[in-house]
Amino acid sequence: MPSRQDGPWLDDAAGRLIRPYTVSGGRTRPTASLDLLSLVMATGTVPPAPLGPEHTVALGLCDGPTSVAEIAAHLRLPAVVTKVLLSDLVDCGALTARAPRYHDTTTDRSLLEAVLDGLRRRL
């Protein structure tokens, strides 16, 4: 019997009733450049009607900036399938995507030495 919180696509005993790549229409490459740490957020634009239920759930998870990895975990789908779904939503204007911000500053050597010293004291 399907679990109420997981919807009709998951079954407690059998697991996922639809293969993940069926959800993405067999596509394995997203059209948008998305990293696992990319942040996606809903724009308020209503996507076209033919999108599937997973698209709707994914869009509902994006009220605020949410990482691709987080959405994949909530959907219980592989990251590549989630990226395809999210790129569909980016392409139709329902989501915006922002690459993760990396700090260009190098790590302070004194900080690393303090961490190493603390680890040695614990041993």
TrEMBL record:
Origin superkingdom: Bacteria
InterPro entries in the record: DUF742
Pfam family, one: DUF742
Name of the protein in its database record: DUF742 domain-containing protein
Organism expressing this protein natively: Streptomyces coeruleoprunus
Lineage per the UniProt record: Bacteria, Bacillati, Actinomycetota, Actinomycetes, Kitasatosporales
